[in-house]
Design brief:
Structural class: alpha/beta
CATH topology of the largest domain: TIM Barrel
CATH superfamily of the largest domain: Enolase-like C-terminal domain
Order of helices and strands: EEEHHHHHHHEEHEHEHEHEHEHHEHHEHE
Strand content: 15-25%
Number of strands: 13
């Protein structure tokens, strides 16, 4: 079976509330959704969430990238098994074009790191995996057992457990969020820190009282601090017994973490500095972290994320599966399949759908339940269907690309 065409949609998903952290503030998420249609009419869906400050991408730019990519050359193979489908996905390489988010030199920096176009890679790859999963009658999670590089992290989990998150909000809203985390039975929670003029030490001490003594509490600085101030910034947070600090410095100062880790007595996780295989190898070589934050969209899709997890395991590092606020049920389902088929995830984020989005573009609501628990998805493909009426409302651009040269 072959791919007949891809249809890309640039969509805007309104959020229920403003999402704020040290790197960005948003009330909507502009995503890319891709439909893959096979010759027999079988359809699959994928999604990417471009973040300009992470991979240099915009959804508008990704539409241009997709149009300029020679899809007929890259994706015209006939597939009859997961191995064939994996090989097809591995051949997809987006053209390095599109309106740059920053200046040309900045975009070239993302190109050099191997992460420019990662959200587009993710959207296209997931659409292909979903379509062929439906054709084969198997869930996308089965891909892990057929992907050679992932055998060291392969698992079969009947259910997974997500952690909660507290954004940078006002004192009352943060306390309400903390109380919700505790009441809802979460075992882990991440708090955004690093906002200008915020007293993060006091914030965390207050949140620790509200969230309870047993919660695993970690923080995410989103590149907020310069390397010279990290030790002083982290010290008051230690009183709240944090278990990890995520991306404390800008990517341009990431090498300083090799020395800083000697003075910071909690594990350090990379996020904005961990978007590609090149980033991961540099982190291991330079000894700049204890954990990787792997996100399907940021890291280039399901397969690339499996590679990163296996590389972390080989290097003796931990990893989490993260998410971008504003992901729809497509990426939530993909993350669920990934998490259900991977062993040793330290923290798991995602499936916040109805807690974040004003409207769900999928018929299925796969938001986690009490305690953050959620079952593995066992239906064919990703296991979610797009609501065409909602898609029509949120789409701001559409492009059909055929694969017949």
């Amino acid at each position: 079976m072959r791919i007949a065409d891809l249809t890309a949609y640039r969509v805007r998903l309104p959020l229920k509330r403003e999402i704020k952290h040290a790197s960005a503030t948003r009330r909507e998420s502009e995503n890319l959704m891709v439909r893959c249609r096979l010759d027999d009419g079988t359809e699959g869906w994928g999604e990417g969430v471009p973040r300009a400050y992470v991979t240099g991408e915009t959804a508008e730019g990704e539409m241009a990238q997709l149009a300029a990519t020679p899809l007929a050359e890259q994706l015209s193979g006939d597939c009859a098994s997961w191995e064939d489908v994996i090989g097809l996905c591995e051949r997809f390489s987006p053209a390095e074009v599109g309106p740059p988010t920053h200046d040309a030199a900045a975009v070239q920096g993302y190109v050099a790191r191997g992460c420019y176009g990662n959200a587009l890679r993710c959207a296209v790859e997931l659409s292909i995996l979903d379509a062929f999963g439906r054709l084969l009658g198997e869930p996308v999670s089965n891909v892990t057992s057929h992907f050679g590089p992932a055998q060291s992290v392969r698992a079969s989990n009947a259910r997974v457990r997500y952690s909660g998150a507290i954004m940078a909000e006002g004192p009352l809203a943060e306390r309400v969020s903390a109380l919700k985390m505790r009441t809802y039975g979460f075992s882990q929670c991440k708090v955004k820190v690093g906002m200008p003029s915020a007293d993060d030490g006091q914030r965390l001490r207050t949140l620790r009282r509200w969230i309870g003594p047993r919660m695993d509490l970690r923080v995410d600085a989103n590149e907020a601090w310069h390397s010279a101030e990290v030790t002083a910034r982290v010290e008051p947070l230690l009183l709240s017994r944090i278990t990890c600090i995520e991306q404390p410095v800008p990517h341009g100062e990431v090498e300083a973490l090799a020395e800083l880790r000697r003075h910071v007595p909690v594990p350090v996780m990379l996020d904005e500095s961990l978007a590609s295989l090149a980033d991961a190898r540099a982190a291991i070589r330079q000894n700049t972290c204890d954990l990787f934050n792997i996100r399907l969209s940021k890291c280039g899709g399901f397969l690339a994320s499996l590679r990163l997890a296996a590389l972390a395991r080989e290097a003796g590092l931990g990893f989490q599966l993260g998410c971008h606020p504003g992901e729809s049920g497509i990426l939530s389902a993909a993350g669920r399949h990934w998490a259900a088929s991977v062993d040793g995830i330290r923290y798991l984020e995602g499936s916040y759908d109805r807690h974040i989005l004003r409207e769900l573009p999928t018929h299925e609501d796969i938001t986690f339940s009490y305690g953050g628990w959620a079952p593995a998805l066992t239906g064919p493909g990703l296991g979610v269907r797009i609501d065409s009426a909602v898609l029509e409302r949120i789409a701001v651009e559409k492009k059909v690309v055929g694969l017949r040269s």
